[in-house]
Amino acid sequence: MESTFFSIQSSSIHFVEEHKSALQWAGLTAKYQQIFSHHPAKTWLLYEPDSFIFSAIFMALLSAEKSVVLPQNGQPEHIKHVKESVEASVGDVSLQPTVPSTVDYQAGPHIELRIPLSSNIAFYTSGSTGVPKVINKQYKLLQREVDVLETEFASKVSGSTFLSTVPHQHIYGLLFKMLWPMTKGHRLVSQAFEYPEQLATKIKLAKLEKVTIVSSPAQLHRMALDNPLLPVKEQVETIFSSGGPLDANKNVSLQKSLTCEIVEVFGSTETGGIGWRHKHHPNDNDWQAFNNIKLGYQPNCDLLAISSPYIEQDVYYADDRVEIVADDRFRVLGRADSVVKIEEKRISLDEVQDRLKQHELVDDAFVVVIGTTRRKLAALIVLNGAGQQASQKLKKIELNHLFRDFLSNWYEALLLPKNIDIQSNYPIMPEEN
Fold first, then answer.
1. What is the pLDDT of residues 96-142, one digit of tens each?
2. Theoretical Cys-Cys bridge with 323: which of 79, 210, 331, 349, CB 3.0 to 4.6 Å?
3. Which domains does the chain have, with CATH numbers?
4. Phi, psi at residue 39, to the nearest 5°?
5. What are φ and ψ of residue 41, in 5° steps?
6. How far apart are CA 338 and CA 406, in angstroms?
7. Which ranges constitute the DSSP H helices of 296-423?
8. Is this structure's pTM higher than 0.90?
9. How far is it, in rounded angstroms, from Cα 13 to Cα 189?
């Protein structure tokens, strides 16, 4: 019969930090477990920026059979809103919590925690209406995903130390930064790293021989321009990226310069992980579905439908347009809400952006709809090095024609951007009067 609890022993947790050990974690967790076990509140808001303290509180709450609510951030108005739906709160003193995250405790001895698999964790995430929505997950769904991550990527992370630049308040950071290394016996640094320079310093000072970095597209895009990890590239084994699209050219460039693998993970708070990919070339657009995900289309359209052990319902209807190229492989064509009508013709803003990014002179692009009575597309294009050199020789109107001609390989004239703004480090030749 399947167990109703998940057991975790503090002796299997390996922190690689000064003044942060498994025994200290055990003492802190035991202290909080005692507090929560004697408190009548069942539903707790948890917000604590320090990942070491957060992980202890999180596990203590669950083992005390409490429900955990994770706000998006610590902003006062958001916290005020979330507090309306909970019975108590714990964490940073700025929240005026029921229980602060500054309790006195003593290290050790080791403890074993029994976490009910039915324990509920509520995530606040951005909703399509602009109002944050709540996604509820039982702990068993999170642990199932961790089990699959370990099975899929064990060879990539074995013997490495996990470091992260993403927050633990959201599902990606909670899974990859905390639950995966803690419950599977991998070494981890709980400290949050805001800048890649901090990562490089930590790798050097701690003399880490092999590291797995959990990061985001925004961090990696900045790193592609100025990469402080180059002096420690021999130690960087694998980088995970999720939360949004990672530019294909920057992806491949970073892998070459760091001689590492970048694994992109596709999914959402609602669905958990759906697929992953490791690009060898910028045009490698296929995603590999995780082996327990069943792919399909929604009725009469190209929107994704999945069956997954990470969600409660039998079939989940996603907002992503896809092309399923095999039972376990798919391509993402853009979000449903990125599809707009121009002159009664449907076009995906995401798709146009991706096309522009494929141009040899383009580093990044952003496409929007402008106009009210007559809608049209407008594009902001950021030039790469070759594009900036070209901008010294070509007039703005010539560059605009160049990009429109390129897009005309896929789109008819009325769908081409009518307004194009170009960013370059060099003055662009003015148009003649």
1. 999 999 999 999 899 999 999 999 999 998 654 445 789 999 999 99
2. 331
3. 1-137 (3.40.50.980), 193-340 (3.40.50.12780), 343-423 (3.30.300.30)
4. -100, 135
5. -65, 140
6. 21
7. 349-357, 385-390, 396-407
8. no
9. 11
